[in-house]
From TrEMBL:
<dbReference type="Pfam" id="PF07730">
    <property type="entry name" value="HisKA_3"/>
</dbReference>
<dbReference type="InterPro" id="IPR005467">
    <property type="entry name" value="His_kinase_dom"/>
</dbReference>
<keyword id="KW-0902">Two-component regulatory system</keyword>
<dbReference type="InterPro" id="IPR011990">
    <property type="entry name" value="TPR-like_helical_dom_sf"/>
</dbReference>
<keyword id="KW-1133">Transmembrane helix</keyword>
<keyword id="KW-0067">ATP-binding</keyword>
<dbReference type="GO" id="GO:0046983">
    <property type="term" value="F:protein dimerization activity"/>
</dbReference>
<keyword id="KW-0418">Kinase</keyword>
<keyword id="KW-0472">Membrane</keyword>
<keyword id="KW-0812">Transmembrane</keyword>
<feature type="domain" description="Histidine kinase">
    <location>
        <begin position="435"/>
        <end position="628"/>
    </location>
</feature>
<dbReference type="GO" id="GO:0000155">
    <property type="term" value="F:phosphorelay sensor kinase activity"/>
</dbReference>
<keyword id="KW-0808">Transferase</keyword>
<dbReference type="InterPro" id="IPR003594">
    <property type="entry name" value="HATPase_dom"/>
</dbReference>
<feature type="signal peptide">
    <location>
        <begin position="1"/>
        <end position="24"/>
    </location>
</feature>
<keyword id="KW-0732">Signal</keyword>
<keyword id="KW-0175">Coiled coil</keyword>
Amino acid sequence: MPSKRLISRVILAFFFLLMGKNTAAQDLKKTLQKGVMSADSSVYFFSAAKSLVKNPADQADFDFAKNAFFSDHGILDSCIYYGEKALTYFEKVHDLNKMIYVRHNMGKAYRSAGDYEQAIQISFEALPLAEELKSLSWQGWLLQGISNNYHDFSGYEKGVYYGKKAYEILLQNQENDPMSVVLALNSIAINYDDWGKYDSALFFHSKVMELKSSLDTLQIGFTYNNIGNTLIKLNRLEEAKPWIQTAIKISEINSESGISEDYDLATYYTNLGRINTKTGNLKEAGEALTKGKFYSFRSQSQEKIGDNYEALYEFFKNSQRPDSALFYHELLTQINDSIFNEKNAQLITETETKYQVAEKERILAEEKLKNQRITFGAAALGIFLLASIGIGFLTVKQQKLKNHQQQQEIEFQKIKAQVDIQNRLQEQRFTISRDLHDNIGVQLTFIILSVDQLKKSLQPLSERAVNSLDSIKSFTQSTIIELRDTIWAMNKPKMNFADLKERLWGFIEKAKYSETIAFSFEMDEALEEQKLSSFEGITIYRIIQEGVHNGFKHAEAGNITICLRKKGNDGLEILIEDDGKGFSLEEAEYGNGILNLRKRVSDLRGKIDIESTIQKGTKIRIDLPENFHDSTRNS
């Protein structure tokens, strides 16, 4: 991945724009130039520039400079804040160059924050402006940015498509701007790499190295890293290591010059850690991954943080430290859930489709205008009037058919894109759940076997030691059960209440077998086909599980009743009753069980009411509103 800084080129582009107009404000512009170029003295120069602002145009240039500065230095919130302020003025005066440039900076900021929906949307908004400006450079840069966003969102096929579009456009301007061609080639290559098409990735990376003679080596450290990254995936580790080490040296030289290299160093040290993990050099791996973690947090990039967590998970797994491995696996899952949720996938598809529809509509409008001209010309030729009417009729009919076909193609592409994204999300779920089962599940089972072996081999044991080992075994067994439930939910991104009912019956049957309790379970037939997301399903399952555990673990109940009833169109009422010994609500309010129960109900926007009477039992009632399906944590 290239440095999102490339600060020298960005600054040159910025000052070309900034100095090109409005000579009456040269003092302000020169001061702003110093503010953008000087990281150490930027506060001083921007303060001086602020005193030179005399009118709305000056204020817009000031906001524009701050937007560029914060973009290059990775200060994301400020970049977006000043970008939105600058756009308000530039859109009024229709300054296309600056409108595009500000959006380009904001797109980089959103991408770093992992907000790919906004990043792609803002790039698609800028593309028509670049076309209106007839700027090949801007069209290529924006398409290249879209390619990178699809890469980070695991949309590799689309990433290759937009990367190649960028390359075709930028190739026309290669002599003036070879670096932009390099970045387009890089976008194509990294998408091929993570798509698993390694030969294609190395081919496009090699095309960058062919251009090396016309470039500054300090600008292409990312290519050295990316070649190394592909070689890692091909398990050619000894070949990969020198490429990664060269990339690190280049970034360290750039850092000494004041260029922000946090994003790149996060990538390079994480990759170096991966190599050392795979080759068994665990001490060196730990040192590299610690540096990678430091720089990934400095970069504020969700993508880089996630990559580092994944590498740390592999490191601790190979170091035989299952607790730490599970910890980083959970962190990785949380990041992936925040990035790859279906809502974002759908919004990105809709944003792209809007752009494609606009393009098709523009083409249709041009064709319509062309038809009108044809019809007018035909009408003017009086001597050929009858023939012209016939030709015009056929032309219009053919064009209507063509228009209809284009509209159908738009709909088809939209549906295909949605299906592709859903398939990729499901593949990722299966991969993670398989890894959980094959690695964490196996290690937990190994712990249980080890505890049993210890009890046999260390005889005689004190009662305290036996109790401690039994406690470890019991906790591990319950963790395995929770893990299996999580895997079940991950493998069913969409389910209904019939699926949930089947899972609950399995849980109840196991409880019957281990406890002398009579269970009663009822569910409205009207609920059977009602849809649930995996998050909703597992949360409702955990709520009922927690309520039932209270009955047979703490309340010493003889009978437990579970009832699920439909409320309104999509609402739900859950009742869990037992005839146990009850408990004091004041004393239990802050226990883990009650807190977990309230937290899960809150996640589904529901309400919970608990009634408990000493020696008479407990009644738990949960009401989930009709909009509980809109929970932002749906997966």
